[in-house]
Amino acid sequence: MTSPLRVVVVGAGAMGRAWIRTVADDPDVDLVGVADLDPAAAESAAEGRVPTGTDGVALALSTGADALINVTVPAAHHPVTTAALFAGLPVLGEKPVAETVAQALSLVAAAELTGELFMVSQSRRYNAHLWALREQARVLGRPGLLTTEFFRAPRFGGFRDTMDHPLLLDMAIHPFDTARFVLGAEPVSVYCEEHNPPWSWYAGDAAATATFEMTGGVRYVYTGSWCSPGLETSWNGTWRLSAEHGSATWNGDDPPVMETTSTLTAAGPTDPGHEIAGSLRAFTHALRTGVPPMGEVHENVLSLTMVEAAVQSSSTGARVLIDDVLERAHATAVAAETRDDVRELLQSWGSVREALKTS
């Protein structure tokens, strides 16, 4: 019998507590520590069951942990994950991979240099209905247009209310990543417009429409609002795929519906697990088998790049090429890197795009 994976959770906020509950529910994983810069928060989340500390990597090493789950704020993703990887600890990190694409490329290099697994929990991929939609996309043949509509009006309060781009930076990475997953295609360019409805309680633009050109010529169009009361969509949004042999729709909550002229048959149901529990299961399986999981850092970077490109397009009013975003991020990463070995690897990449894997 394989021993449970011993993990330390770093970050004891609301999402950190959700991860702690998820670890407790998984028989293949044991919680051995909780870390947070606020000692009281760590102690409260741990409930006296495991050691706590303010330095997650130090705590992981002292408790003999096998891996670290990074649930810190985005600004801390890069330093915490870098320290863990170079300490010999595989990392499962909350999305986004890092605060910027430049930092994400630094983490790609760190994972390559250390040989340790760094997986990003793009948790909304772990949804059986989404996998069914992806299978329907295969049956439907060559895709032409994929759309998402997302309309909700949550009043979170706190940092989201003061963000410059609350919808794009806080939420849009989920559907952008999902589009890559469903289409099996990668972004080429984007044109995006943002605005803030007059009744919005957000300081920054809370509504946006982004049109992506994806590889193969397919278009992905996202329209959303964070301040749209009434007739709200699912948290997953509502989806429509138009393809060569028909169409499919998904309301984000129930099984997708397909109408097709294809003679192909969709495969049976897939159980990828559910949201962060699915991410944790995939991470554990990857460490035990050596098979790269969804969300491995090379595969995940382009989802964050879509967000950064959309923000740039909205800010400049121009169409933005994904390759241009990657090249600028690469130059920034090289200039900002403080570790000589990471900087040397970053400098040696002939093409940033070639260093990244597709989904």
UniProtKB/TrEMBL annotation:
Keywords: Oxidoreductase
Pfam family, one: GFO_IDH_MocA_C3
Entry-linked InterPro entries: Gfo/Idh/MocA-like_OxRdtase_N (IPR000683), Gfo/Idh/MocA_oxidoreduct (IPR051317), GFO_IDH_MocA-like_dom (IPR055170), NAD(P)-bd_dom_sf (IPR036291)
GO molecular function annotations of the record: nucleotide binding; oxidoreductase activity
Domain GFO/IDH/MocA-like oxidoreductase: 163-247
Domain Gfo/Idh/MocA-like oxidoreductase N-terminal: 5-120
Family: Belongs to the Gfo/Idh/MocA family.
Name listed for the protein in its UniProt record: Dehydrogenase
Taxonomy of the source species: Bacteria, Bacillati, Actinomycetota, Actinomycetes, Micromonosporales
